[in-house]
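Much of our argument rests on the idea that a fold can be written as discrete symbols. In the encoding step, the backbone of a single protein was reduced to a row of integers, each denoting a local shape. This step matters because it turns folding into a mapping between discrete strings. For completeness, the protein is quoted in full, as a sequence line and a line of structure tokens:
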Amino acid sequence: MLDYTDEAECYDVLRGGEARAAAAAEGVLSLVPQGARSLLDVACGTGIVTRRLAVARAGMRVIGADLTHAMARHAAERLPGAVVLADCRRLPFRDGEFDAVASVWLLHLLRRPEHVRAAVAECARVLRPGGVHVTTVDKAAAHNVGSDIDAVLASRPRSPAPDTSAAVESYAAEHGLLPAGQTRFPGRGQGRSPRRTIADLRRGWFVTLPPGHPLADGFAARLAALPDQDRPRPDPWFTLRAFRKAT
């Protein structure tokens, strides 16, 4: 698992910056009803997406929440007075406080199914009846774009994905959240090059191949043998699911 305290300083640069944030915000807003007057962005990170959500619709109050102090500090610089430190499994908000709740690039980080279930439960709790929860699913699968890099990494050890669409839909149903739409958006600027993938491997991006893992050097060597070391392969495409809270 990456240390998001250290990651906060370089997060935006390494994740496609404003271009990716714009695509993510557009995707989320396409699933949030026009009448929504309040939105909570859970695991808002540096606030690069949250800020776009906040300025997109006049009259919609947007709050960001993140567990990592360094991330929340960056977010607070973008949205003064509108960011709180919070664990997604224990949100410090009243029942039914928000018209919409977003959680982008969160659930895949919660490695245990019970933690994913708890996060979905909290999003449902703070959502008003009739409100909409929007979340990314199948995050790891989005990065497999059929490239030569993917072919090299195909045999790497894998852990079960905690954020499969089917699992998240099941957890949502347990808390009165029913399917209400789906869309995809591009991870602009996130197309991997072989050299960048080696760097990601060295810094622990692939959780089943942490730095020092006996297999890591072998994968790095195979990646280093690929052509066009600095040419980005195609961008990933992320999936968003929307769930409406029963009235």
Summary: The CA atoms of residues 106 and 141 lie 14 Å apart. The chain has one domain: 4-143+160-191+235-245. Residues 17-31 form the longest helix (15 residues).
